[in-house]
Design a protein that fits this description.
alpha+beta; four-stranded antiparallel sheet; elongated
């Protein structure tokens, strides 16, 4: 048998590490001298320590290694789970790297593009067709009024979250199909609906976003930037873009101070 020092040299693992593995139950010495406490290992345990080191080198934690060695869990199940975890991390780093590259190329950009996770929410919504975009503000106000008449005690979430979708498959100047949605606090008792006012749950949504400052007729410039970003990063759009009107004619006298957040849901 090999003394712990000899085993340490042959396995190229420190004595401190060997004692740690013993404490965790991963590699128990074949013999411990009751008189002096010396540890002794058999040569075939070099294979055992080699397996532990190999599993550590691929990124498994001690707990995961214990599941394989002590609990005899299938190694392929744990390795597949770790592989998926690593692939997710790599994907995140690739996304961050692509954003760095984009920002380096677009040093003069006025609006920064960013990713946001919109949490699960419950909304009331109204859909309709507008004569033109001048009717958007009135449509939003009418939606709120109609919902409040049906549900006098309804409360909006804090912080407020509402948005407009334009549901046509192309840009239209007339007869614009629109949906307005406002997030509200869900009650145990179902809210009242009508022909116009409906309710639905919106799942957690990852969005690529940009803030647009100024008049709405120049929103196309911000859309062009965000679509260029999505295309260059090979992202997939999964739903209609959302326009969130943060500041507008209702609270800002100067059109240049109007602020809109464009949110494009992606997979």
């Amino acid at each position: 048998m090999l003394k712990i020092g000899e085993f340490s040299k042959m396995s190229k693992v420190t004595i401190k590490a060997l004692r740690y593995y013993e404490k965790e139950g991963l590699l128990i010495p074949k013999h411990i001298d009751n008189f002096n406490g010396y540890r002794y290992y058999e040569s075939n345990q070099l294979i055992d320590i080699s397996k532990i080191i190999s599993l550590k080198q691929v990124g498994l934690s001690i707990e995961e290694i214990k599941r394989i060695i002590i609990n005899k869990e299938p190694i392929d199940v744990i390795l597949k789970s770790k592989k998926e975890e690593l692939e997710n991390v790599i994907s995140l780093y690739k996304y961050q790297l692509s954003k760095f590259n984009y920002l380096l190329k677009e040093k003069d950009m006025k609006e920064e593009i960013f990713e946001k996770i919109i949490p699960v929410c419950y909304v009331y919504y109204k859909e309709g067709i507008l004569k033109d975009y001048s009717e958007v503000s009135m449509f939003i106000q009418d939606s709120g009024r109609e919902c409040l008449e049906l549900n006098p005690n309804i409360k909006c979430v804090v912080p407020d979250y509402c948005y407009v979708n334009y549901l046509d498959g192309e840009y239209k100047e007339k007869n614009v199909k629109i949906r307005y949605a406002q997030a509200v606090i869900k009650e145990d008792k179902p809210f009242k609906e009508s022909e116009n006012i409906k309710f639905m749950s919106i799942p957690e949504t990852k969005c690529i976003c940009i803030y647009h400052k100024g008049a709405y007729d120049s929103l196309g410039t911000s859309y062009a930037k965000i679509m260029k970003y999505i295309e260059s990063n090979k992202l997939e759009i999964k739903d209609f873009p959302r326009e969130c009107y943060i500041d507008g004619i209702w609270n800002k006298d100067n059109i240049d101070d109007w602020l809109t957040e464009i949110q494009v849901p992606i997979n």
